User: Fold this.
Amino acid sequence: MRSFTLSAAVALSLTATAAQASPTSEETFAESVTALEKGAFDRAIDHLESLADRGFVHPDASFNRGVSYAGRAGTPQAKNGDLGQAVAALSETLLLRPGDNDAERALGQVRNEIARKRSSAGGEPVVVRPSLDRALVGLASEEVWAVGAAIGSLLLTAGLVVRGLFDKSAARIGAGLATVFGLVLLLTFGALAAASAHLRRTTSPAVVVVTEARILERSGEPVVQRDGKPEYTLIPEGAEVEAHEREGELTRLRWGSIEGYLRSNQLRLLSRAP
Assistant:
């Protein structure tokens, strides 16, 4: 695990975002690092949450917040939801800085601890399959789908041009194949790029930060009713969901193929790189 001292690299990184980070934010971050080094997790969390409330977004701040919550979860001062908050902060780190090995390792350790706690409490492992549209869109990034659509457009254009310029049957056959293939690529990848952009605009990644959260109807009632008695669908701590719009005290979401509402204070929305 990397050191949490205010290293030259972190200082330079903070300086690079000076337009967004006021001196007060830099001082607060430095105080949080000092508290974390001393194992004063409560104080570190207070400082880092204060930064988050101000809209300060930086992968180092998210990483340290995740470590602080995970650290407190292993002490007598632990609070319900600490591990979920740790998952949220470390997942946010990876959104802001993909490929961060320390964050990936720490996130894996926290998820294992959540699974261990659920197992010791008699909870069953939770496996959630994504919906078909999310599974397809998630195969690659929006940029990849856009590039595929652009290639399809070029092939389609080239095929039409060649068909118009040459009369030889061989050239026209090749041009026809290129036209058809280009059209298929354009329609397929274009649709996937549009779907990916739609999901990015209309949803936000979020993490459940309570031990278990009940999925509700818009009215606040449980989603499933059986024999006149409520039967709740529960989402475990640390689960990642897609959050849609907020409606009063509830937030509409999708968890795998399940859609419904959670109380907004049971979720933490994650910041993403622009």
In short: The longest helix spans residues 169-202. DSSP finds nine helices and nine strands in the chain. The longest strand covers residues 240-247.
